[in-house]
Amino acid sequence: MIVAFASLLIQALTLLAVGGISTASMAAPRGDTAPVDDHGQALRLAARPERIVSLAPHTTELLFAAGAGSRVIAVDPASDFPVAATQLPRVSAWPRPDLEALRGAAPDLVLVWGAGLRAEQRESIARIAPVWVSEPARLEAIPHALRQLGRLVGEPEAAGLEADHFSHRMGALRAGVAQGARVRVFYQAWARPLITVSNRDLIGDAIRFCGGQNVFGNEALAARQVDPEAVRAARPQLVVLGDGSTADAPGGESLERWRNRWIAPAPVVVAIAPDLLQRPTPRVLDGVERLCDAIRNVARNTAGHSPVAVNGSVGSVGGMQRVRAEGWR
Prior knowledge:
Elements: H1 2-14, E1 52-54, H2 57-65, E2 72-75, H3 99-105, E3 109-113, H4 119-126, E4 131-134, H5 141-152, H6 156-175, E5 183-188, E6 195-197, H7 202-209, E7 212-214, E8 223-225, H8 228-234, E9 238-241, H9 255-261, E10 268-271, H10 274-277, H11 284-300, E11 309-311
Parallel strand pairs: 1-2, 1-3, 3-4, 5-7, 5-9, 9-10, 10-11
Antiparallel strand pairs: 6-8
Helix pairs in contact: 5-6, 6-11
């Protein structure tokens, strides 16, 4: 699984994050209030979709959160939440969508991750069924995405309640954000090669939300490979292991390697499950809460110490979905 998702990550990094309107979908005429996906595509369906296929872990979660889980008939192999999703048939989306299996499922709606498929791949899917592109890049975009999806699948009330809960919880978290000087944060999205993220996507937005300063936040790409010495030169106060490494069971680029890399003052090291910060779903606030706690704790005491392991809930590398970029460097 680790090797497979390393390949998936590199594949995603090489994809051009281009939009494009699906040829199988129908743009709403001016004045219509058809739901709009994250690529700006307005989509109308002739009837409530009863056979929905999700080709990304986060779209699977969003469908269940929006109240349409009972109508999801197949998901991609990496969909592991909620538990009910793990019992559904699988349709591969990477390295290319399994069009034969998708056609056999006879869906009336397919949800895809915008950065996970090339435009021509989305168009191939759209010849089978209408396509909804999901790619919320900011925390505040998630409740909006939920509401739009809820309207599309005929569950506006359930999705609206979930969106309201997300917004209220986000507001409560904002009230507890560390004040004053921003904590310098390095986010390890992948260990070998060492990959981090900029402020162009969800993780960078979460760091900023929590009062952190992403030390590679101004990079042009959403995700890029970095040299360990460049990380050291950036002098982060907090290192977040977001690749499935753990802070208490060193391996790969985890705690022991960080411990040997720094001279005082060394950063605090925390581990947060990949699927809690890389998937734009309601569960992301669980990861944000842990991130904010870590940043707040560092802000209270920035004196030089040896790296401290602060354990988040560490999940499988299968959560590695949200790292993507417009190119590989």
